[in-house]
From TrEMBL:
PANTHER family found in the cross-reference section: DIPHTHINE METHYLTRANSFERASE
Protein source organism: Mantoniella antarctica
This protein's record includes keyword Transcription: no
Protein name as catalogued: methylated diphthine methylhydrolase
Pathway where it operates: Protein modification; peptidyl-diphthamide biosynthesis
Catalytic reactions of this protein: diphthine methyl ester-[translation elongation factor 2] + H2O = diphthine-[translation elongation factor 2] + methanol + H(+)
Top-rank taxon: Eukaryota
Chain segments carrying region Disordered: 65-107
Enzyme Commission number: 3.1.1.97
One annotated GO biological process: protein histidyl modification to diphthamide
UniProt biased composition (Gly residues): 65-79, 88-104
InterPro entries given in the database record: Diphthine_MTase (IPR052415), WD40/YVTN_repeat-like_dom_sf (IPR015943), WD40_repeat_CS (IPR019775), WD40_repeat_dom_sf (IPR036322), WD40_rpt (IPR001680)
Protein family per UniProt: Belongs to the DPH7 family.
WD repeat placement: 309-344
Length: 465
């Protein structure tokens, strides 16, 4: 069974987690929350949220003590940890960093959360995504937020780098809004997902994903440069967004008819994907219409490059291109399955493998150095799914046990499959978020996951079969 290190209870329903991928800020964990207020004859309904920012740090056995925070966001580490049905633990916490920033493996008995910044009141949040390192400011990383108000918001996180020996037990960071754009469409007008273009950089997308400014709902015919971000919405639409040199954002390419029902997923292809004529131009999407689609932004959003409506037995909830192979893409669905796709032939992607995660796969995140994914499987808890066969092993680590280094496309897909390696059943409600905690010098894997109605945020170590 998985080993629970620490669980905290948020002030609102937890619906997403994003661990910062940048080495200098790898301790930071952003957490999304969502609360629907139905309203009555006198008060209209509303959807509110809070953006939480936590430090995730290792502790050494026997060095626990002190108070980790207040009642809503506090909670203690569990010492040696418990199994995955241990539930929330709201005792004291804290502890020493255990080698943080030393460049070596933390000598940690476990992991614990500490609030890094005061919670920020927002609209109800659907998705958070850390920007590529090129967008970092002089004071820290940048975070994008898609919300139920139909807005895309960018925050600068003012924080000390990990190697500055920051006090992880104090709220030493701050969230600062730097840009906001209303880009929701018709219907409920909610912006449901956001992704950063890995091939763009500040100023590089100023020319837009297509040509000129696009009104929401317009279909554009392409012809421009790169965009910086893409969002999708509850109207089934997709919007490409560029950052101007002044820091403001603009929608440069938009369609309200990308999907027939609510769109839940949008993701840029790997920069080296051979199916794209230009890095950063290829986009994937998924929606409640059970369609998995691909788009070439250089041709606009009028017509998809491909449409697959047959593979998924229910809505497509997440799309995750692999960082380890430019032609491997994972999709999640309400049909409980995580699927792996070979997109070398973009007009006809091939489903190469699938695994049943025991619940709808709302979100999945690739491991930074291993060919496996952390999945939020809704009623099925959280799961770790790995590639089997030739595609298994660590990336670029042929000397490690089980490591296979870099693989050709043929080696990656040949005879391989997907298999659930382990699961976590410690959440008492729907699991909507899962991501890999920061790594350092061979440290054992940890996963951060969250659940909705019980407002849970957990960190745990998977025990894989």
């Amino acid at each position: 069974m998985a080993k629970l290190h620490h669980a905290v209870q948020l002030g609102l329903n937890a619906c997403g987690v994003e661990c910062c991928p940048h080495a200098s800020y790898r301790r930071l964990v952003a957490v999304a929350s969502y609360l629907h207020l139905p309203g009555n004859d006198d008060t209209p309904q509303s959807r509110v949220g809070q953006l939480f920012l936590y430090n995730l740090a290792p502790f050494r056995s026997g060095l626990l003590g002190g108070d980790a925070g207040d009642g809503d966001s506090g909670g203690g580490a569990e010492g040696e940890g418990g199994d995955d049905d241990g539930g929330d633990n709201n005792g004291g916490g804290g502890g020493e960093e255990g080698g943080l920033g030393s460049g070596g493996a933390p000598t940690a008995a476990g992991w614990s959360f500490a609030p890094a910044a005061p919670a920020l009141d927002t609209q109800a949040i659907f998705e958070l995504r850390w920007a590529p390192a090129a967008y970092n400011t002089s004071t820290g990383p940048v975070l994008a937020q898609a919300d139920a108000g139909g807005c895309l918001t960018l925050y600068a996180v003012d924080a000390n780098p990990d190697d500055d020996a920051a006090d992880l037990g104090s709220q030493s960071a701050a969230l600062r809004e730097i840009a906001k754009l209303e880009c929701g469409g018709g219907g409920l007008g909610m912006t449901t997902c956001v992704d950063w273009n890995p091939s763009s950089a500040p100023g590089g997308g100023g020319g837009g994903g297509c040509s000129g400014d696009a009104d929401v709902g317009d279909e554009c015919g392409g012809g421009g440069g790169l965009c910086d971000l893409a969002v999708c919405g509850a109207d089934g639409g997709i919007r490409a967004v560029a950052l101007r040199e002044c820091g403001a954002m603009k929608v440069t390419c938009a369609t309200a008819t990308a999907h027939d029902l609510e769109a839940w997923a949008v993701a840029f292809a790997h920069p080296d994907c051979a199916a794209s004529s230009h890095p950063g131009a290829l986009l994937f999407s998924g929606a409640d219409d059970a369609a998995f689609k691909g788009w070439d932004l250089r041709a606009g959003l009028g017509h998809p490059v491909f449409v697959n409506r047959r593979a998924h037995a229910a809505g497509v909830t997440c799309v995750a291109p692999s960082p380890h192979n430019p032609h491997a893409v994972a999709t999640g669905s309400y049909d409980d399955r995580l699927r792996l796709w070979d997109v070398r032939q973009m007009a006809r992607p091939v489903e190469t493998a699938a695994a049943n995660c025991g619940g709808g796969v709302w979100r999945c995140r690739w491991h930074p150095t291993r060919r496996r994914l952390a999945c939020a499987a809704m009623d099925g808890g959280a799961a770790v799914v790995g590639c089997t066969g030739a595609g298994a092993g660590d990336v670029g680590a042929p000397g490690d046990s089980g490591g296979s280094g870099e693989l050709s496309d043929e080696e990656f897909f040949a005879g391989g499959g997907l298999r659930v390696l382990g699961s976590y059943q410690g959440h008492e409600s729907i699991a909507y978020g899962a991501d890999w905690g920061w790594q350092g010098g061979g440290a054992a894997d940890v996963v951060v996951s969250c659940s909705f109605y019980d407002r849970g945020l957990h960190v745990w170590s998977p025990r894989v079969a």
